[in-house]
Amino acid sequence: MDELLPEAESVAALVARFESELAQTRSPRDAQMLRDRFLGRKNSIVASWMQQIATASPDRKKAIGRFANDLKQAIEARWAAYSAVTRADAAPKDALDVTLPGRVPLLGHRHPLTVVRDRMEEIFTRMGFAIVEGPEVEDEWHCFDALNMPAEHPARDMQDTLYLSEPMPGGGGRSDVRTVLRTHTSSIQIRYMQAHQPPIRIVAPGRVYRRDNLDLTHTPMFTQMEGLVVGEGISLADLKGTLLAFARDMFGERTRLRFRPSFFPYTEPSAEVDISCWSCDGAGCQMCKKSGWLEILGCGMVHPAVFEAVGYDAERYTGFAWGIGIERVAILRYQVEDIRLFYENDLRFLEQFPY
What we know:
- This protein is an alpha+beta fold.
- It has 11 helices and 9 strands.
- It is 37% helix and 18% strand.
C-alpha cells in the first residue's frame, strides 16, 4: 500500500487530523463544514481519492479504493460519535432561547355578532331602555297565546316551531300547555309585563329557534332583539322617532326610514321598516338590489289583546314594540353575503372585524 501510494498520508494520520480540527470547532456550522471537507461528494479528501480510480493503473486502482474506503469509514465513525455527544448535550426543544426575538401571542376578541349586540344595547340603554332576558324553553301561552296568536296560527305549526315533548304546568294558568324552543323574544315581554306595571321601556335580546333550513339567509338558531315601550299617551310617532334614532346611530346620520303596512298578530297597526341603503345613499346599488332600500325590522303598536292577557288596562295604556335580527344588522353593517359564516368559526372570516 505504502509503495503504491507514496504521496498519501496514512489513514490514521488523516483521521487524527480530522479529530484534532473537529475538537477546535466552535459551532455546529463549523463542524459540518469540516465534515464536508473530508466526506463531501465534491472536492472533499475522500472524493478526490475516489476520482483518481478512473485514471489509475490497474495496480493502483485496488489500493486507492481500499484507502479511500478505509478513510471514509473511519471519518464517518468519528463523526457519528461526535454527533451523538452533541445531541445529548443540546438544549431540550422547549428550552427558551433568549437570543431569539419575542413571539407576539395570539389575542382573542369578541365575535362580530357580540360586537353588534353590544352596540345595539349601548344605543338603547342611552335612550333609557332596560335590558332583560328570559328562558329559551318557553310554554305556548307565553310564546303564542298571550301574544294574540291563536292555536290555528301558521307560526304554531310543527313545520315552523320546535316543540318539546313534555308540557310545562302553569302556562297562563293551564296545565296542558306544551313547551317549545322560543321562536321570538317577545315571550320575555309578556313575562316582564306580568311582573311589572307601566311605564315600561325594555329591550330583550337573545337566541331564538325556528324550523328553517340552513342556507345563505336562514339558520335554525339566530339572535333577536325585541323592544317594548308601554305607558300613557304612547303613539306611533314615538315608535318612529325611536327607530329613526337607532338607525342613524347604527348606520349613519344620513339614514332614512320607510314604513310599509304589514300584519303581526300582536301589534295593530303593524309595519315593516326599511332603511335607506347606506352603501349608495338610496341611489341604487348591488347591495340594495337597485331599490335604494334595505329591509331591517318589523314593528307596530301593541295590540289591546296583549294588554288584556297580562292584566293591563287597554283603555289607559298604549305601547309599541319591534323585533330586529342581530344577524340582519351585522349582515348590513359588514356587507356579509352568507349568514352561515357567523357560525362556522373560521378565523379567516372572524378576524376581519373590528372589536
